[in-house]
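User: quick one, fold this
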Amino acid sequence: MHNLLLSLTLLLTVTLSGCGYNTLQSTDEQIKASWAEVLNQYQRRADLVPNLVNVVKGFAAQEKEVLLGVTNARSRVGGMQATPELINDPEAFARFQSVQGELTSALSRLLVVAENYPQLKSDANFRELQAQLEGTENRITVARNRYIKAVQEYNVVVRSFPSNLTAMAFGFQVKPSLTVENEKEISTAPKVDFSAPSPAK
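Assistant:
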């Protein structure tokens, strides 16, 4: 009896391995890890926004519309439940991308406005925050690309025969990828200009 159970276990293991079960598991875990890093970098960016807005406000308080736009976009980002389960809900995933896109656009407008204020551009706090933002945007781009690659590899396994049969049997479904209308804009880090003249003394 023991030998029969052992044989059945080995047969089941070989069958599942041959039908892509292990690959489904490993690629699904890679997606989770990649998505966690995407969320982590987006959170890092959101955390920079209040300080950045406050510094700009100190030099360009009259730019109320731009400042309010960034603040509101950041608020919408913070209002979303950005959980690991988000990748299993296409509608919530699309909303998440949309609000992140809004924040990217709002931050880009803020940096454009900053170009009109030489004293702001040469302020040490602003330059430090701007450098942190650029670094974060670069990390976001890397994290997004890793997630996109992980989803692509996973989805190929889910859709390919015979692993698609295993996927159906165990409830593995196609995952959404990061594709938005302004993908080029979102994946381009804001330019940081360190050639600003020193403030007049």
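User: anything notable?
Assistant: Confidence is low (pLDDT under 50) at residues 4-17, 181-201.
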